[in-house]
Amino acid sequence: MGNILLEALTIYWTPQEIAANVAAIFSIFFALLLGLLVGYERSYRGRAAGMRTYGLVCMASCALVVLSAHPETWFGGKSLDTLKYVDPSRIIQGITTGIGFLGAGVIMRDGLNISGLTTAASIWMVSAIGVLVGVGFHGTALTVSILASVFMMWGAKIESLLPLRHAVLITLLFHRNVGLTETDISHLIRSHGYEIANGSFSINQNNGQYEWRFVAVSKGKHKSATLVKLSEGLRQAKGVQDFKISYARN
Length: 250
What we know:
- 54% of the residues lie in helices and 16% in strands.
- It is α+β, with helices and mostly antiparallel strands.
- It folds into two domains: 2-160, no CATH class; 167-247, ACT domain (Alpha-Beta Plaits).
- Helix 4 packs antiparallel against helix 5 (117-134).
- The termini are far apart.
């Protein structure tokens, strides 16, 4: 009985099997390191999806592609002949589809404010890095990882050097049975260097009390007032009971 079991196990440890496993293990470890490299930026910025998420995504993507690259070694080399013609592109398509669901889970919307798009895009990108490692493009995968990490870390600073029009999400709560016209609000916003974005208005009414929500876009980096000065102008506006201002991040 023992000899039969030993012979059954040895078919999984032929030189071909060992070589395929060594190559797969190296690629998976390399993909894990690259995923951790890219995910560090997200962890550094306190995002929910950090090094562990990115490392696992990159490693899993690589493992699935490596699996498709060696069908002749499946089941100890006793696989059917049809398995020798596995199309890796179909596995890659499955990876991108699955990562799409994962990326959608990190995108959050709060009214007109959307967050998580960068994290979702970077998760999708790190899966592509894992695919690159899996098909043997280790140098390309390393290059993409370094470029992605540098851009994610310093991209905001590059943007700050360029002409920029930032957006602000504004919520106004008026006193009961009191409200300003859209023209009044537009004039107030323009006087502080902003303009209301077309199609961004949202109006709620509850027992005669109105709440307005809209996005205001600055006219330029040095042409618009700070949020502190803008809040002072809104506080002094007639009929405004309460307000909330935040950057409309996406």
